[in-house]
Design a protein that fits this description.
This protein has about 80 residues and is mainly α. It has one domain. It is built from four helices and no strands. The longest helix is centred in the middle third of the chain and has 15 residues. The chain is globular, with a radius of gyration of 13 Å. The mean pLDDT is about 85.
Length: about 80
């Protein structure tokens, strides 16, 4: 899946996370198992620190459950 620069600009505007950081996290996910709870928690914690938004354990659990059970929307562009 390819994303346009406008997509990355919208993400950066909302989250203050730049394109290079996003691509670095995506590469980390590609190199690891996206169904691995430990990997997902690491990524969630990294994103939390980068954006300055705290993610509770309960919210982490919900995110991980959604990813593991393939309940994540396929059209990410519509989420922004």
């Amino acid at each position: 899946m390819k994303f346009s620069d406008s997509f990355f600009n919208r993400v950066e505007k909302k989250t203050k996370v730049n394109k290079e950081t996003i691509l670095s996290l995506a590469q980390k996910l590609q190199q690891n198992d996206m169904k691995n709870e430990g990997t997902l928690r690491e990524v969630i914690e990294e994103l939390s620190k980068m954006t300055g938004r705290e993610v509770s354990k309960e919210k982490q659990d919900k995110i991980i459950e959604a990813v593991i059970n393939d309940k994540v929307p396929k059209d990410i562009d519509k989420m922004l």
